[in-house]
Each structure stands twice: as structure tokens, then as C-alpha cells.
Amino acid sequence: MSDDAFDYAALFRGAPVGSVVTGEGDVILQVNDAFLAWTGRRREELVGTSLLRLIPVGDRILFATRVAPLLGLAGRVRDVALTVFDHQRVPLAAWLAASRIESTPPITAYAIGPRRERSIEEAALIGAVHRAELSDARRLDAELTLEQAAAEDSLTGLLNRAGLLSEVRGILEARPAVGEVWLGMLGLDHFRVVNESLGGDAGDEVLRTVAQRLREQLGEQVSIARVGDDEFAVARGGEAGIEGFADEIVRAVARPMVVADLEVVVTASLGAVEVWSGDPRAGFPGTDAESLLRNAATAMHEAKAAGRNRWKPYIAGTAEDDRAIDELRLLGEIRSALAGDELRLEYQPQLDLATGGLHGFEALIRWSHPERGEISPAGFIGVAEKSGLISQLGSWACRTAILLCAELNDAPGSRPVRMAVNISARQFGDAQFAGSIAELLAASGLEPSLLTLEITETGLITDPVAAATNLARLHELGVRLSIDDFGTGHAGFAYLKDFPIDELKIDRSFVSGLADSADDTAIVESCIRLAAAMGIGVVAEGVETAEQQALLGELGCDVVQGFHYSRPLDTRAVRERVAADGATVEPR
Ligand code: C2E
Ligand code: CA
Ligand code: CA
Q1: Which is the closest atom of ligand 1 to the Cα of 390?
Q2: Which atom of ligand 1 is nearest to the CA of 541?
Q3: Counting beta carbons within 10 angstroms of the beta carbon of residue 10, is it exposed (0 to 12), middle (13 to 18) or buried (19 or more)?
Q4: What is the dihedral sign for C-alpha 133, 134, 138, 141?
């Protein structure tokens, strides 16, 4: 039969699997009979409405963060498990695949059908096979020679710590002709979060993938080991320079990987140490394998402290002891900064993108150190978090910001001004936290809905029970909750279902890529769509150019913040800004 004699419309309607075609804005253009029969719905009721209406809110999150961006980037998705409501809103377990069709205008074709839960017999069968495999594996394990078992990491098949140390000793003793040995220690960033949010099996998969990438990247000449839960080491003798490898290693790990059906990005920090002996016959006096590994670890911690996803060479004299002392000293200084008046807050304006009117401010902490000058929060918040001093620092910041916000809103005839305050994970894990905010609000007379608390995804996952308790209490009070640095976490966004969230704050790293990275644009778009699907607000931070502003406007972003509008302001400038805004913008 020739192609044009074929009745495609009849084929679509009668296809044996549920099919739905959508156009712009997920609006359903056509559905086939199998889909109607399965859901008990009528064609007239579906065509012209949004596909998202058929999906419960929780799964819309999945849709907006996985399905939509993947369709945009790769043009297709498959094997997505989700739920679809039938005509009586009874949830049906569904399976979904989709592809984008680049017609004008573009359309998306979905295949959606019932997801079969595993039957009891199947499960039993799979269990039996699994047990047989396990006992096979155990027998194989037992056959491994003792020597092998002692040198190998069973999860990845790489060397283990002992194996690596013995190889490095060998290299040092062999006195390579080129007279150079290098050793790098690689730590995965935030691996604990991967484990906690995706589960231990997924964590193991990540470790195996990283091992595989190291093998591919470095080849056989390099000794590769797993030396800790989430730490790897690489070593080589007789070849100059780790510089040539370091960037590649960091980049290779950071390539997206698919784990537990999710695409995740796991970054790593690398510390490297090199030793060089001018005269190979003399060997490497004063150098042993253990101290090389220790020094590489020190450099790795420095790479983490410098922002992760990078490498640092080891520089003698910045030993771990020194850093511990530095941190202790810093802690003492933060304590006296709190007592004196070295700390202050600055406030960065947030604007309504549509009207250009003032939405509110984000409070950002500042420290003018008597000797060292301005210290950025990145330089001391981490240390304060580790020690618990963050509670005092945090309550000082909350009190100061709430008092100013109350004052700004007290001015006669003023329009409501919001205030956002950054809250660290540790504060959120404190059972007293919500109570202390309630007291501050009562004492200042600030209307609770004008206060927004910004917390990162990590803050919610670290201690979910305490976080949930605090959140419920704060939500009851009417305080707004915003997810800071949204999209930078590693996990899916399942947690969003469990917490009463009012706002997503799209991280600066995505906003800055808006004009030239398709990935970043897709991420920003999906964050905005996700917020819309959940019926909550969305703020883009770090807006620096008119171009970014224009794109955010097109994508439907509500609120913007960044150097394009204003740097953070001191208290006086804030009062002036609010007065000017009240004078120039008509109250709504
Ligand atoms: P954050 O919450 O993501 O804050 C945004 C950071 O981006 C601020 O840096 C801000 O000054 C900067 N920024 C704003 N607009 C732009 C822009 O257009 N371009 C660029 N390049 N940067 C922009 P800052 O003030 O150094 O704060 C760094 C981080 O320190 C904050 O990140 C926040 O996580 C933390 N922090 C600041 N104040 C506090 C506080 O009172 N408590 C806690 N727990 N953390 C705080
Ligand atoms: Ca923030
Ligand atoms: Ca941020």
C-alpha cells in the first residue's frame, strides 16, 4: 500500500496503546480510543484542556522537572512511572513515554498505558533468582585468593587503600627515571545527600560509574583505588605533571550519569601532590606513601573549601593542623564579632518583574573584620555552621532583619515590603527554631506573611523530621518558605510534596547561563513551570543583564533580584529606596 493511501487517523485512533498528542502549554490536541477506554473519559472533555490536569500535583513535579526538560533537551523520554486520574479521579498506575515532533507548531506524542505491578509469583521468582546469584557470587568471592582480597575494593574492583599504598611504595622504591611521582585524592561532593535521597543502591551505582570513568580516563599506567566511602586515589610514577590530568578527571566525574532512572550530576574535588627527585638514584628521601596520601587529602579538603568541583595542588605548610587552628581562631573571632558591632546586614532589593515595583529585600550578612577588612559570608558561614555558632549568628540576623522590616512597614501609607532571611540547615534542625521566630514576630509586630525564610534543599533533607516540625509551625504562623539555590541539589524533588513551600529561588548559576546554555535555559524554564504547577512563587537571583531579564520575562518569572537592578544596600539606602518606591509607584 502506498504511503499516502494509508489512513493515519484511523491508525492513531485504533492503536493498541493509549496515545495523547499535546501542543503548546501541554494542551491536549487529540487522544485515541485506547486512552479513553482505559481512563473512562470522553474525548470532548479532554481535547483543549491541559494534560497536567490528569496528573496529581505530586507527579506534576516529576513531570515539570524530568519529563518536560528531557523532552526539550533530548526530544524523548521513556519508562516514566506516574499516576493518572480516571474519570472519577481514581488514581491509575501509569507508564509513559513521549517524543517531541518538530512540526510547526511543535507537538508532543505521548504513549500512556497501565503500569503492571509485579505479581506475587513474579516477585517470588525474581527473589529466587537473586538468591541463586548471591550464593554464586559468595562462592566466587571465597575463591578469590587472600592476596587479591586484601588489595581490592569489592564494590568497584579498584585497588583498596592497602593496595594503593603498596603500589605507591613500589613506585617510590623503583626510583623512576623521570624522577617524578604524583598522587591525587578525589572526594565526591555531597555524596551523603545522594545516598540519603536516592538510596544506598544508587550510591553504589554512582561509585561504580566514577570508578569506570577513572579507568577510561587514566588507562592502565595509573594506579586507581577507592580509599574511603566516597574517596578515590590515583597515582603514577615516572611521568611529569598531574596538571595535564587533573582538570580532565574533575570534568569526567561531573558528566551527568543515569542512576535509578534519574539523571544526576555528581561532582568531585581533587587534591594532588607531586614529589620530584633531581637525582633518581637518590630516591625520594623523606617521602613515604602514607604522607603522600595524607597531603593529597589535605589539598582535597582545600578544593572542597574553595567551592568544590575543582582541583588544588598540595602546598606544604597548609597542613590540616594549621587549618584546624585557623578555624578555631576564626570561631573566636566570629564570637567577638557577634559581641562587638563588626557584623551587619545588607539588603538586596527584589523586584516584581512585570511592574518593576519593589517586592522586598533579601538580608545578607556582612562582616568588617578590624584587621582583615570585609570577609564574605562564604568565608565564615561554613565554619559557624560546623561549630553550632550559626544558631547565635542566625538568630542575630533574623532579629535584625525582622526589626528593620517591621519599621519599614510601619511608615504611614507604605506599601507592604517583604523581607527574606537565609536560614542554615543547622538552624532548621533545631526544635526551638520556629518558636524563636514566633517570638520575634510577636515582639516586632511584623505581619508574618511579610517574612520569607530561605533554606536550601540540603537543609530540608538533612534532618527531615525536625525540618517538618519547624515548617508546619512556621506555616501555621503564616511565614513564607522559599527553597534557595533551587535545582543545585542532586536528588529528585520528591521532598517538595512533603513540605508546605511557598517559593522557589532559581540559583544564580542557572540564571547566568540563560542566554547561552540550552541546558540552563531548560532548567530555568522547568523551575518556573514547576512553581506554576504547584501554584507557588518563583524568584530568579543573580540577574546581571537586560538579556537575562528579557528571557525571564518570556518564561513567566515573577520576581527578580541581581546586580542588574541593585547591589545589596545598607540600612540607610534601604529606607531611601522604600520611601522612593512609595512615592513613585501607585499602590495596588
Ligand atoms: P545566597 O543566598 O545564594 O545569596 C546570593 C549571593 O549572590 C549573595 O552573595 C549576593 O550578594 C550575590 N549576588 C546577588 N546578586 C548577584 C548578581 O547579580 N551577580 C553576582 N555575581 N552575585 C550576586 P553573598 O552576600 O556573598 O552571600 C553568599 C551566601 O552566604 C548566600 O548565598 C547565603 O547562602 C550565605 N549567607 C549570607 N547571609 C547569610 C545569613 O544571614 N545566614 C546564613 N545562614 N547564610 C547567609
Ligand atoms: Ca539566599
Ligand atoms: Ca544562590
Answers
A1: 44
A2: 15
A3: exposed
A4: positive
In degrees and rounded to multiples of 5, residue 423 shows phi and psi of -120, 130
Mapped onto helix, strand or coil, the DSSP state of residue 38 is: helix
542 C-beta closer than 6 A to ligand 1: yes
Query: Please, are residues 71 and 100 in contact by the beta-carbon 8 Å criterion?
Result: yes
Ligand 1 neighbour 377 (Cβ under 6 A): yes
Phi, psi of 130 (to 5 degrees): -60, -45
121, 126, 130, 136: CA torsion to nearest 10: 90
105: preceding bond cis by omega (within 30 degrees): yes
CA of 454 to the centre of ligand 2 (A): 6
Distance between CA atoms of residues 527 and 532, nearest Å: 9
pLDDT tens, 130-176? 555 555 556 555 555 444 556 888 899 999 988 899 889 888 887 76
Give bridge partners of residue 367 from the DSSP assignment: 343, 375
Three cell numbers, residue 137 = 557470587
Q: Would you mind telling me the total number of residues written for the chain in this entry? A: 588
pTM: 0.56
Establish whether residue 378 lines the binding site of ligand 1, counting it when its CB lies within 6 angstroms of any ligand atom.
yes
Question: How many Å apart are CA 67 and CA 108, to the nearest integer?
Answer: 11
**In which residue are the cell numbers 535521597 written?**
197
574 CA distance to ligand 1 middle (Å): 17
How far, in Å, from the CA of 484 to the mean position of ligand 1? 10
Centre of ligand 3 from the C-alpha of residue 541, in Å:
7
The C-alpha cell at 540 is: 530568579
Residue 271 and residue 297: Cα distance in Å, rounded? 6
311 or 237, greater pLDDT: 311
Q: Give the residue, out of 362, 364, 421, 508, with the most ligand 1 atoms within 8 A of its beta carbon, to mutate for a pocket test.
A: 364
Cα–Cα distance, 343 to 496 (Å, whole number): 34
391 lines ligand 1 (CB under 6 A): no
Give the DSSP per-residue string, 398-415.
Answer: HHHHHHHHHHHHHSTTPP
The Cα–Cα gap between 190 and 490 comes to 8
What atom in ligand 1 is closest to the CA of residue 427? Answer: 44
Using the CB atoms, write b or e for 258-291: b if 16+ within 10 Å: ebeebebebebbbbbbbbebeeeeeebeebebee
pLDDT in tens, 423-436: 998 898 888 999 99
